[in-house]
Design goal:
Length: about 55
């Protein structure tokens, strides 16, 4: 869970996600996520990262 107080600390975090052993649908699935503050605009960026094609199994 992300709170306002935590976001005010201007985090720079990138973490791997726990990956399932099987996927119900083929497609691009994330392997991680990131939370940071953009240095130019000051906007918060919350992103899924490492999008990788996975086949349904």
């Amino acid at each position: 869970m992300v709170t306002r107080d935590w976001l005010l600390t201007k985090p720079n975090l990138e973490q791997p996600l726990k990956l399932p052993q099987a996927y119900q649908k083929s497609g691009y699935h994330p392997t991680g996520y990131a939370v940071r503050v953009d240095g130019q605009s000051g906007d918060y960026v919350v992103a899924l990262t490492g999008m990788t094609m996975r086949q349904a199994s």
